[in-house]
Amino acid sequence: MIRRCVPVFLTALWVLTATVAAAQSAPAGAMPSKMALTIGEAIELAWQNNIEAIRQRNALQRSEAEKLRSRSTWLPRLDLTLGWRANYPGRIEQLVDPNTGKRSFVVLENFYSYQFTLQQPLFNSRGGSYLHVPKAAGAQVDASEEDLRARRQLVALQAKTKCYDLLKSQRLADVQQRAVQRSIEQLETSKARYELGSASMSDFLKSKVQLGNDSLELITRLNAIEVDRAELNNFLALDVSRATAVDVEFEFEPYPLPAEEAIVQAVDHHPAVMAREYDLKRWSTELGGTQFSRLPSIDFVGTYAWGSFDFADGLNSLTELDAYSFGVQLNWNLFSGFSTSANVKQAKVSKHEAESELAQSRRDVRLEIKTAALGVNEGGQRFRVAEDQVESAQEDLDIAQEKYNLGAATILDILVAQVNLSSAETGRIQAGYDWLLSIAELERAMGGGD
After folding, report:
1. First and final CA of the chain: distance in angstroms?
2. Helix segments in 124-200, DSSP class H
3. How do residues 168-200 score in pLDDT, each as one tens digit?
4. pLDDT per position as a tens digit, 230-240
5. How wide is the angle at C-alpha 224 spanned by C-alphas 36 and 378, nearest 5°?
6. Residue 187 DSSP SS3
């Protein structure tokens, strides 16, 4: 019975593992030929396709459009007016000949005209537009550019996290595959010892149960690979069934922590801080423009007009009008129902909020750097401890196996040592990728990593 059971069980396990692995590696249809992506390629792909990145780029384009429109506050305005008017029946008009002074009555049927009007602001105070609106719009563009840079760094961190998750799942599956292989070997050893009478049925059954548990855990970890792959594809805006792989190999080496001088410089040049600085500049300019609007506005205005008349009696003289005019126009709003005072008050509140947000942004960035630096330091130590645990667990398994072969240890000692080794290897992989992620978080906190 035992001889029939073991081969059947091992065959079923092999078929199950091969099926899952084949599903994992099978290429998805209608997909790009290059399935393996580097970290940099994944970041660029996410930057092009991620919806939040697209929204931030659109926000920058809107700010640039607003900056372009703000130039109208100091550029001239030129209008063309065309007109035609017909009278049915014709309207009777009295004309005076300028040479003879003779008066006559005619029937006016049609009138054609066109007029150019030029208006050039000389001193435009409406909303502070002449000086302040273009400057505020430029500050808004600068803030949007910094927000876009901050968004790119966040997208890069998210892309790295997704790639790390997939790599970690693959490494954990490798660990479990080795655990399954050790369980298979132990089951074969227990079977041989049982047939020779040097081991009990209990040893064989315990080995069989351990193999079953390790095999189920392997299936779970293979499924985790596909879940992490699908999440990476979704983040990169690819088909979730695409067989995407991450083409990178990491070396877990010590990472230098930033000095205080580097931290100060990173805070000053961090995109989140610089964006808030430009916001403060914008609202300061808006406040100045609102206060400036209490002054009058002065414009130069010039016009040129031409008109032509059609008369029912065919009169040709005095049938055209050719005139022009120019001058200076002053507009001064003496009372606006307290709206200017209200606008000034609102602008002061917005400026105060911008100052508070800038100060808070500096504190937030410094906190992120400190937290990330502590995480890198802890992650490095945790990884080194995990490596020692793997070495210790491997030594324990070797000793337990030697004792078991000499009859000085039980099957439980072997199984416990195998579980401990798998747990230690899992912990090393988890600590390693947590360390890599903490490094990526520190790079982003320092204003880079993209």
Report:
1. 61
2. 132-196
3. 999 999 999 999 999 999 889 888 888 888 778
4. 999 999 989 99
5. 85
6. helix
